[in-house]
Amino acid sequence: MTHPDDALSCSNLTKKFDSFTAVDDLSFTVEKGRFFSILGPSGCGKTTLLRMLAGFEHPTSGSITIKGQEMSNVPPNLRPVNMVFQHLALFPTMTVAQNIAYGLKRRGVNRADREKKVLEVLARVGLPDSGEKAISQLSGGQKQRIAIARCLVLEPEVLLLDEPLGALDLKLREHMKVELKQLQQEFGTTFVYITHDQSEALVMSDKVAVMNHGRFEQVGSPQELYRAPKTAFTARFVGDTNAFEGTVQSVEGDRAEIALANGLVVAARTESTVDLGKSVEVFIRPENIMLGEAAQSRENTMEAIVLQELFDGANSKVLVNCSGQQVQVHHSVSQASGLTPGNKLSLSWDWQHTLCLPKDGAS
Amino acid sequence: MTNSRWHFYLFLSPLLLWLGLLVIWPHANMLDVSLTERSYIKGNSFSLKHYRLFFEQPLYWLTYVRTAWVAILTTLMTLLISFPVAYYIAKIAKGRSKLVLFLACILPFWVSELVRAYGWMIVLRESGLLSGLLLSLGIISEPVEFLYNDGAILLGLVYSGMLFMIVPLVSALDSLDNSYIEAGFDLGGNRWNILREIVIPHAMPGIVSGCIIVFMLSLGNYLIPNLMGGKDSLWFTEQIFTQFITRFNWEQGSAFGILLLTLSSLIVWLSLKVTRQSLSSTMGQ
Which of B13, B80, B101, B133 is most deeply buried (CB count within 10 A of its CB)? Predict the structure, then answer.
């Protein structure tokens, strides 16, 4: 089963707390040198999964293999993985250099090599002169980098990251996303990153697993997840989208016609098999909907009334009402005329951009 | 003077009165008395005689050294016993059992120290519970007196100091986030060096403040050495008591009092230096 290039593989991994199943029969592999994200809402089991990988929780059943070695009886201090904690857990009683040297010291690296390695890794994370600083003297972003340096200096097979950007403010978070990705590429270490923020997962990862109720809904590249979500949960969780409920009226190849709850009929693309008469959900991303007269030629059209303009620079949207349902539509700044509340608009979009998926729990 | 300053001094005045009248004034007075030689013929005059006597009489300074030594030993033993207890309460016990355990540590201290000392005497005396138990088990053939020795003093002092060690230790260890311990394991540490390099440095202010309190209480304790160690337990506070009450030599008693104060201050200062803690970081937490 396991491939030599796999840094990490799990099979049938399950964790139960009394009657609650936090991680439910998961099997997956992470290739060496990849940035693998696990994306899910809070309570989906992602933290439990990460803690099992680190060795702080014991699986109820199933196995974890890291670099071809079975991990079930290996305690956390002997596993070839390191973890960046949610609140970083940099030791406040030690200096930056002592923090980074802690793991090396435990491995019995001698003093001279230790000092050399600490300086090296500090230079690589861009904080060459911080060795003697106390942890409390660092800024939020610097602490992040030191926490990562403290792990990477040990050259772990897999680096586990537990939402380390959660505590930062938005600007810094945006900046750190790029930086983390660059650090990962520079060191070539396999990263397993858990987050509830879809934008973090999309920006940084090579592969993302969308997790819900202890299971992976879908594993794929960020592009795949965004363009071709396989479940309604993924479609709703990854990126912004407009969702409609409806029933299947006709299917022809990958094209289905759906009667929506508000009486309209739309054409949609479907990859999973959907049966006639079955209730489904239809998803259209805000950027795929055209506004106004110019787009009349497209397959699906709807009449709508402007409710509100949601201005956000290049990411501006307009909120409209389509027969009782609110829909978000992207609009470019140049299109901004005619968006006064109460105005009538026509919306249109291609059927290929319309995704029809079975309702959650119905599949 | 503005109104708010007025309030500040008004609220400060009880503290100032307390410090001034009950701490500073008596001590200044004691220092003055200790340096006075009383004479009916020549009148009172300045003299170092009472301090000289302390150094000339081996009984006095040996008792002094012995008291300091036993107090230090008491402090270390209290720390060794209390640390695992505090660690268990702060880090391992959860929810209700945590509260129950903490209360179990505090509860005995609702009873007066005198009653607790008598409690120990009931257990340890020749006709007491321990001796009786060992007799009935056939381990000893005749009753053994467990009281009136240094072991009994140490036991009593450790017991009476434990609360004052456990409370600051629990609060110091409670504030250590579990993720630090997990991070230690994650980076390859084992229990022993995580304790030494992460847990103890974090708990250091609590350890030092607990040690200072227990040391001061033991050094100045009169009741336990006297009751559990017997009348001749050679505890320095007994010497002070004897000078003041039995011999009515207030000058000598004052000199001993000042010497005891100097000793405790010196040892506290030294231990702060050695552990690189400051009084504000340990007491102000």
Answer: B101
Convert the pLDDT of each residue in A166-206 to its tens digit: 878 888 888 889 989 999 998 899 999 999 998 899 999 99
Residue written as tokens 């060794």? B80
* A311/B contact by beta carbon, under 8 A: no
Q: Which of A99, A357, A67, A139 is nearest to A231 (CA)?
A: A357
Q: Do B184 and A75 touch (CB under 8 A)?
A: no
Q: Which of B179, B189, B204 has the CB atom closest to A77's CB atom? A: B189
Q: What distance in Å separates residue A344's CA from the closest CA in chain B?
A: 56
| Residue numbers in B near A103 (CB within 8 A) | 187-188
Nearest CA in chain B to A84: B183
pLDDT tens-digit profile of B81-103?
A: 999 999 999 999 988 999 999 99
ipTM of predicted assembly, 2 dp: 0.83
Total-model pTM: 0.81
User: Which of A71, A84, A87, A93 has the highest number of chain B CBs within 10 A, making it the mutation to test binding with B?
Assistant: A93
Chain A neighbors of B179, CB-CB under 8 A: 85-87, 89
